[in-house]
Amino acid sequence: MSEAASPAPVIGQRLIITITDIAFGGEGVGRTDQFVVFVPFVVLGEEVEVELTEVKRQFGRAKLIRVVTPSAHRVEPKCRYFGECGGCQYQHIDYPTQLELKHKQIADLFERIGGFPRGVVSPVIPCPQPYNYRNRLMVRSQWNKPEQKLNIGFLRADSRLVVDLDECQIAEPALNEQIRHVRANPPPKGGLKVVVRISPEGWEVPRDSFFQNNFFLLPRLVETVRERLKDSGSKHLVDTYCGVGFFGIEAGDLVESFVGVEIDQQAIKAAKLNAINRGRTNGEFIEGRAEELLPEILRRFDAANTTVLIDPPRTGCPPVGLESLRENRPAQVLYVSCHPATLARDLNVLCADGVFELKNVTPLDMFPQTQHVECVADLRLARNS
Predict the structure, then answer these.
(1) Cβ–Cβ < 8 Å for 302, 308
(2) Contacts with 2 (C-beta within 8 Å, 6 or more apart), sequence order
(3) Of 193, 186, 169, 218, which Cα lies nearest the Cα of 366?
(4) Most exposed: 57, 93, 230, 290, by fewest CB within 10 Å?
């Protein structure tokens, strides 16, 4: 007689599982029979006790109850809110292992989503300061009805509720002073958000405009973009989603001319001021949607001598923008992204039918202790295009 099938897992059930992988996003992966369990705040190879909080047909999610056999790479988190606050996923893992983990996750995504060889992904460039690096945070407020008080902090790891806190270990110390100021002068009601930030020295940045969140690794990001642009030999640069003109201004000396495109009117005004302040005279900045203006801009330049740099939001580049790149075929596309999954998806579109070839992906750990990572992808127009 065959053995009876194991009973189906149910919410509230406790299991002992071994973590065999850490998925992109930070959840550990374990199995019981053929049932997959995702659980946060674990390390590869650990044996853990978990309690199921969600059960689907073939997988479930669980919360960590205790670590039965800890990994040698497990460390004590610096933040007393870690595990409750949803801002960080990896404070319990030593930093070299975080870098290896992110490299594997990026390579996995590129292989699975785009069919790209794993070797195209370079090792992750580490941040020289893995804590106290963030220069911008969004502080949320929410009325705590049971305790009759206003919670001020960040979203919890397990819900859309706000965890009340007075400091953040990955923020620069000056930001923690600003958080305490917000707590001392709270918003008039729950639901309001307050952005605290440190302005970059020597740059005009409007309050709501984008700028990179990590000043400590920013020089290496600029260095990577400059190296890839220089290697292409391009004479012209089109900097789309240019914000306050950062990449165009920082790399403008490597080309004869550049154009920055940005929909944020205030950012464009700031970009023009930044170019003047930094003595960059061979470029211009245009207000508008990058995907709509790209064909017209690319017609002004010789495509064989043009690089297009795209640094879109986390959602990626709109399909019309990708199609415009495929149609106009610049010699190089430099794609800067903080979301490897949408990056892999978009590169798959650009490289379809052999139009572009992915030469290299350089990850930079602009967000230590978290699931996030910045990547610079270097695509070249295929020789047979």
Answers:
(1) no
(2) none
(3) 218
(4) 57
Contacts of 148 (CB under 8 A, 6+ apart): none
Whether residue 110 contacts residue 175, with contact meaning beta carbons closer than 8 Å, is answered with: no
The pTM of the full predicted model, rounded to 2 decimals, is: 0.94
Q: Each residue of 95-109: pLDDT tens digit? A: 999 999 999 999 999
Q: Which amino acid is at 68?
A: V
Residue-range domain boundaries for the chain: 14-69, 98-128+214-381, 136-197
Beta-bridge partners for 15: 50
User: What's the rounded Cα separation, in Å, for the pair 364 and 125?
Assistant: 5
First-to-last CA distance in the chain?
A: 62
Express as a percent the part of the chain with pLDDT over 90. 91
Architecture of domain 136-197: Beta Barrel (2.40)
Which amino acid type is present at position 236?
H
How do strand 283-287 and strand 257-262 relate by DSSP bridges?
Answer: parallel
Distance between CA 376 and CA 225 in Å, rounded?
7
Q: Which amino acid, residue 40?
A: P
Please state, in angstroms and rounded to a whole number, the distance separating the CA atoms of residues 142 and 130. Answer: 29
- List the catalytic residues: 338
Angle between helices 319-328 and 340-351 (to 10 degrees): 40
pLDDT at 6: 72
Mean pLDDT on 13-35: 95
**Is residue 18 classed exposed, middle or buried when 0-12, 13-18 and 19+ CB atoms within 10 A define those classes?**
middle
Looking at residue 74, the DSSP 8-state letter turns out to be: B
